[in-house]
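Hi there. Long-time user, first ticket. I'm pasting a complex I've been working with (about 586 residues overall). I'd like to know whether the download I got is complete or cut off, because the file seemed smaller than I expected. Thanks.
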Amino acid sequence: MRPDEFGRAAAEDTLAIICGGGSFPAAIAEAVVRRGRRLVMFGIRGWADPKLIERHTHHWIALGQIGRFFRLAHAERCRDVLFIGSLLRPPITQLRLDWTTIKLMPRILRAFRGGDDQLLSAVAGAMEEQGLRVIGIADAAPEITVPEGVLGRYEPSSRDRADISRALTLIATLGPFDVGQAAVIANNHVLGVEAAEGTDNLLLRIAELRLQARVTTPPGVGVLVKAPKRGQDRRFDLPAIGTQTIENAARAGLGGIAVAAGSAIIADASKVIAAADRAKIFLVGVSEDTHDG
Amino acid sequence: MRPDEFGRAAAEDTLAIICGGGSFPAAIAEAVVRRGRRLVMFGIRGWADPKLIERHTHHWIALGQIGRFFRLAHAERCRDVLFIGSLLRPPITQLRLDWTTIKLMPRILRAFRGGDDQLLSAVAGAMEEQGLRVIGIADAAPEITVPEGVLGRYEPSSRDRADISRALTLIATLGPFDVGQAAVIANNHVLGVEAAEGTDNLLLRIAELRLQARVTTPPGVGVLVKAPKRGQDRRFDLPAIGTQTIENAARAGLGGIAVAAGSAIIADASKVIAAADRAKIFLVGVSEDTHDG
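Hi, the file is complete. Here it is re-exported in full:
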């Protein structure tokens, strides 16, 4: 065992991945495996894709089985825990509360009122009290995050850069409301702000408003900007882009996409970049400090 | 002529109404007439409803015919000008530029980049240089705006009051971005922020997310809040509610609607209140100072 700067046995540590739904978990799990790290998948029943979970050493847990997770994670000698995939706010009927969870409920309910972000932070806090360490994707598989700079063949214009900067400021401004990982701005006009609907719905809406002539900026003008909310716990729910994001941005008539470098997930970079080139839109990783606030 | 406190002949002044589309202009024009004031309608071709325009002394103008408007307004002895109705950002092909407008273009284009609000303020500035005074609906027909207090049979709970307060803060925070006259918050979670799509689209989206179980707050929890953007020139584009807003809020499973008292339009209050009672949702006019910023 080669201890890293924290005195921990680095590569040999087993990583517990608590896995929700969506298309990114597979890419992240593969990246962790490529780095030579042992992982144990904890699929959340009802959200995680069984095909992905069963490809690895795994256990199934229900939402509300925090105690069961603790027992299994200790038995599997996991110390680091990574949350991946989406957990669209579950209806209360999907919960299976074990005793540990019930004891944590007052804390969880307080956090639930505070928004997704506070909810996850509360869960992470409880895990850390159990000797587990909750890490983020940028720690476990940094190659899965968007690098800084222009990624494809097309480049943002200076007008695009101004719109990007304004959108980063807008997203930062919305931070305290635990909302808005994405915004669409075209020629200085805010066309859309993402809340509960998700980025694809946001883009399809812009496409539709354009068909109705309610968005009249010329095609090829405007950017989708995705960045974590300011103050967001970067260990959870990072913004992500995939080929579908590219296709929907093109359908919305935008000029390109900017994402926060280092803290947005790009599951299959070469495929996504090829899609951007095909759609003739730019794709750029930007430093979050470039906003105009 | 009885001069008012500004030394003007008040009730006898002819009011020029520049009229766009939508369902509110008729109610506003009727309210002005009920007050005994002479009005001249200037219908914007392509936006204003001919049936409404032709009910009054009227002229048709195209977008971009500011010079033509000046000449007609002077000939009709109008001094006050009221903008009503929506002017969804027009495609450039709809413009008919007269010479006065062309001379004003550099100013207008600068403002155009700044957002709807700045655009209208620039046009108002140009009008004031011509001796016209641009007034708002709250000046011309205050009875058309929402009064403070609970309007229907149902009352907001203390949780609703907290959500209302948070939404007012959110809308105020978005002011500098010239966006967001409406937001939906349920149990402290921001479900939606309005940008280019308009309130009805916002509510239909929440209804759909609920069907997809992506919004899981119980039915009857959550508020739609409408308020002018902070710093908005209150002479233009006030938020408005009608029976359709009520029906869509009910469809979205919300508990009620709060609007900024005195600066949101309610075209036919008794009908709207009856619709709210039927839908079992509350409707309340709130002071904008009740936000929690």
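A couple of notes from our side: Chain A has ten helices and 13 strands. The two ends of chain A are 46 Å apart (CA to CA).
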